[in-house]
Amino acid sequence: MAKPFRILSLSLLFLFLFLFLFLFPLSSSNPNPNSNSNSSSKSPPLTAHAELTNYGFPVGLLPTNVLGYTINTTSGDFAVHLGDNCKITLPPDNYLAAYSKHITGKIVAGRIADINGIRVRAFFQWWSITGIKSSGDDLVFEVGMVSAKYASNNFGESPDCEGKRASS
Question: Which pTM value belongs to this model?
Fold first, then answer.
């Protein structure tokens, strides 16, 4: 009985990690240098993907279709905007992850919390990824009270969205 629970928890953790990694880069950087969403006078804005690395996360947590983002550098609140809903197959265990057009959460060094807009499909059900932690060479994905750990090197490249369907 412990083995099915471990498989479920690993699946959920992987889903959380994948979704959260996509969420984090979008929320912390702005790929559009003409946008005022990250208006500090310190330095030019970074891309969402590059910004993720400043918080200790790999770029592959976010898909390639990021249109823009906003972040409050004081509170860590962020919003990431994708061109469309996005589905991705997560690398190690081939879980299907779904990103909403609008992803929100809170980010600080090594932790992304209160994530909204990223879900993972495991055991015939969709689970929301609620948090992601960076711990050394690993990422810990949180789905409610369940977590799963995956090597961060599985998320070294940003994935392209797949399986788009026309919707009305």
Answer: 0.70
